[in-house]
Amino acid sequence: MSQIAEKKLGGVQDAATSPIAQIVLDGLSRPQKSLPSFLFYDARGSDLFEEITRLPEYYPTRTEAAILAEAAPAIAAHTPPGAVLVEYGSGSSRKTEILLDALPNLAAYAPIDVSQSALAEASARLGRRFPTLRVIPTLGDFSAPLILPASLSRRPRTGFFPGSTIGNFAPADAAALLTHMAQGLGDGGRLIIGVDLLKDVSILIPAYDDAAGVTAAFNLNILARLNRELGADFDLQSFRHEARFYAAESRIEMHLVSRRRQKIGLLGCLFPLEAGESIHTENSYKYSIAQFQALAELAGWSCRRVWTDDGDLFSVHELDRGI
Ligand code: TRP
Known about the structure:
Layout: H1 3-16, H2 21-28, E1 33-34, H3 43-53, H4 59-77, E2 84-88, H5 96-102, E3 108-113, H6 116-129, E4 138-139, E5 157-161, H7 171-185, E6 190-196, H8 201-207, H9 214-230, E7 239-246, E8 251-258, E9 262-266, E10 269-273, E11 278-285, H10 289-298, E12 302-308, E13 314-320
Parallel strand pairs: 1-11, 2-3, 2-5, 3-4, 5-6
Antiparallel strand pairs: 6-13, 7-8, 8-11, 9-10, 12-13
This protein binds tryptophan.
Protein name: Methyltransferase
Pfam families: Methyltransf_33 (PF10017)
GO molecular function: methyltransferase activity
């Protein structure tokens, strides 16, 4: 066997044992092909997502940041000194700075994210900006159990889950995640959570399909990642990004639509796609305030306060465990 062939074989074996291999094979084998959205956030994907948050069409980030700036003093007033701030899916931790400015007496900030590069950059930047703050980053999925150093284990916990990431879960899964967070944040725990509100499609669709094509690049990057990490042979030119709104489910769906009939090779399997057939990559559910509150209460939380912007685009909720 030539050296090149051996190398290739080694590569395929590595790919086959990759933790994402089984998940990807499973998703592409379904009648509606799908890929899990955590795959978006490799280093390039995390950068592209940061770009999305600055797009004129993407109202959630700046709207939520303005709401947080207004609510921060009230949030701080309910935060006991020596609390731990736990952030789920912290990414760049930009919005966190708004809370950290208002919360000088935290024992620690514990960001959790699937992107090593985003965690490292955010921890370094926060270390410079808040030199006395203890930062304890965790690489992983926020559905994993929350493990803090023993010295912090008895501190009261405030969770922070901004960006309407909760909307990326189907309602039943969202309720399960909120229950899991209630357990992780413990008795006396509290959660500050950002939730995007239902609104007209003329605002919703451009937020997920911007004129500059950044969201399209972000969606397509998932295929580049599979080419690189699993040796797949996706031709990115033969797919286009599409955002669809389904009113009955109150959700935006992100798809990668095949421009032609083709076969994708991946880990020794061939996946046929018809022209116009799609791979579903993400959902983003939109709620009314009352709908979200009902979901949170189902998950064992009490809804204490809610803040919105003047245009009712976005909401930030303060949930606690009640008495
Ligand atoms: N939580 C964000 C949202 O639902 C995530 C997001 C924004 C996203 N734009 C995206 C996910 C585009 C996939 C593709 O708004």
